User: What shape does this take?
Amino acid sequence: MVAPSWAVLALAWLATLTLLSKLINLCHRRQKKLPPGPKPWPIIGNLNLVGSSPHQSFHMLSKKYGEIMQLKFVSFPVVVASSPEMAKQFLKTHGKTFASRPATAVGKYTSYNFCDMTWAPYGPYWRQARKIYLNELFSPKQLDTYDYIRVEELRALISRLYALSGKEVAIREHLARFMLTNVSRMALGDKYFSESKSDSSVKLDELREIFLDLQGYVKRMKDLYRKLDKFHNYVIDDHKARRAGDKDFVAKDVVDVVLKLADDPNLEVKLTSDCVKGLIQGYVKRMKALYRKLDKFHNYVIDDHKARRAGDKDFVAKDVVDVVLKLADDPNLEVKLTSDCVKGLIQDPIAGGTDTSSVTVEWAIFELVKQPQFLRKATEELDRVIGRDRWVEEKDIP
Ligand code: HEM
Assistant: This one.
């Protein structure tokens, strides 16, 4: 018998491998039961279907694809639940599976490698962090000890607004400043930002800039998107014009190919893969720069707190930094707090409590101003319950 040549053997192997990979793919496809959803476009996925109010776009799409559907944001699959029953499935029935946030670059570069509570994956560290926030940092007793800060800052805010009466006021700026001063004084202590104290070691505006930067990625991504969109429209118009004037047109680049694919004349092709890459790389670089600033600031605050504690035998914890540093020394703590975890836990209330609270108050003021009948009703209730001789206090809230 003639031995088969190496070429025949290689061909036989190749054919077997191809067959195997096809079979595996087929099995995978059968196993994967993906939710229904619109067909994604190359590169942009389904981004063309998501408008400036995403919740409304999701609602419209769910009418067509059902209470659970899959969309693609660029190349990321996103599953959208749109009914109380589906929400229960994700949040309760399979709550633990979906409890962690996706591990994005923001958590890695701006939150000490997921070492704060916001970005930590669900598990023993996250549960311990939650216990620390509930029982130690923001327990009703601890919140009472910060009462004087909230009273001082509220009076300072009202005085500033009163001094501006009759003039146009950008309330957003005042509220953001008020919340940041409040939360950072509770978290880090009086020394650093109290507006009433002239020996502030860190300028409030500087800190504000850092934290707004931390929160502002979404806003700035939108700005960047608008700029990119303008640029893309220009590129696309240019390509279309070139194509229109040429009967034997041959696609030469990505834009040509995508435009050719897009039979729908209304489809907006907004992102080329290069732009997506540029966008992501630019942000990681800025996140790293922001991290360096934040870390320097945290080191300064922590060293200062440690020095204060070292010189005082009867030391009593006064702010979040004091409490977290005390816990970091506790040998019985379930998950040891490293110095990065200390910084992450200190950062969370400032990053999470500032913008959220001020935007909520701004929204409430806006709604009241828009609907004078409710403003009248609220004023009447304040006059009746509180009167005009004193300020509203926290204990007035039922
Ligand atoms: C009106 C004000 C606020 C709003 C609307 C708000 C909203 C939210 C939302 C929607 C989440 C995500 C919840 C989730 O994914 O399950 C969250 C998480 C969080 N918020 Fe707030 N928040 C507010 C005030 C605050 C304040 C004052 C603080 C701290 C002082 C704070 C600290 C946090 C932290 C640490 C997390 C992460 C919790 C976790 O990972 O489980 N927030 N907040």
Notes: Residues 36-135 form one domain. The chain is about 65% helix and 5% strand. Confidence is low (pLDDT under 50) at residues 263-277.
